[in-house]
Design goal:
Order of helices and strands of chain B: EEEEEEEEEEE
Order of helices and strands of chain A: EEEEEEEEEEE
Helix content of chain A: under 10%
Number of helices of chain A: 0
Shape of chain B: globular
Oligomer: heterodimer
Distance between the termini of chain A: 38 Å
Distance between the termini of chain B: 36 Å
Number of strands of chain A: 11
Number of strands of chain B: 11
Strand content of chain A: over 45%
Mean pLDDT of chain B: 92
Strand content of chain B: over 45%
Low-confidence stretches of chain A: none
Radius of gyration of chain A: 13 Å
Chain lengths: 112, 115
């Protein structure tokens, strides 16, 4: 079983919809939780990160971490066609914060 | 303000050939890493380095070598290319200081095909 499992998708939503992207994990040592966005044929770019549990909001994006359930989510409000991309969750621990474990990614398409 | 630069962008190799994928960063980051990305499989760590002269294996190191002689450069060598190494390769770098340690900067990728 993989340490990080990500909802596979793909997801297709109309413009303006609320999008929920989710990952589960098994390693209780994970403390850093990241979301990356990857446009087609480009490298991933960090969208948001959260340390330990809780919520973090940045504009239309909200990241949630529930360590008791080993479950993280990224919500996108008022989704735009420019949000169409593959979203990767990633996690790392305090003891080896340099090594991130990635989910397989969820491809999102937002239709105008 | 180049960030992480990978060369080449595309490469076709014959089985058994060797080559080096180049990666350079200009942010003075201590930590650098190489990933491969295959369809539907996310990013898998090949090798990483926490500073000049220090490297270690990741999840899928077989068939690859790395060295880190300077802070800026972290080349990845394919010793004897195999079709199973057909993939997109990404180099990444990050600072290891505090919360900044979580932010990784990725290169644009090298698309490698082994025939």
């Amino acid at each position: 079983q993989k340490e990080v499992e990500q909802d596979p998708g793909p997801l297709s939503v109309p413009e303006g919809a609320i999008v929920s992207l989710n990952c589960t994990y098994s390693n209780s040592a994970f403390q850093y939780f990241m979301w990356y966005r990857q446009y087609s044929r480009k490298g991933p770019e960090l969208l948001m990160y959260t340390y330990s549990s809780g919520n973090k909001e940045d504009g239309r994006f909200t990241a949630q971490v529930d360590k008791s359930s080993k479950y993280i989510s990224l919500f996108i409000r008022d989704s735009q066609p420019s949000d169409s991309a593959t979203y990767l969750c990633a996690m790392s621990s305090n003891t080896n914060a340099g090594k991130s474990t990635f989910g397989d990614g969820t491809t999102l398409t937002v239709k105008p | 303000n180049a960030g992480v630069t990978q060369t080449p962008k595309f490469q076709v190799l014959k089985t058994g050939q060797s080559m080096t994928l180049q990666c350079a960063q200009d942010m003075n980051h201590e930590y650098m890493s190489w990933y491969r990305q295959d369809p539907g499989m996310g990013l898998r760590l090949i090798h990483y380095s926490v500073g000049a002269g220090i490297t270690d294996q990741g999840e899928v190191p077989n068939g690859y070598n790395v060295s880190r002689s300077t802070t800026e450069d972290f080349p990845l060598r394919l010793l004897s290319a195999a079709p199973s190494q057909t993939s997109v390769y990404f180099c990444a770098s990050r600072s290891t200081v505090g919360a900044l340690g979580t932010e990784a900067f990725f290169g644009q990728g090298t698309r490698l095909t082994v025939v």
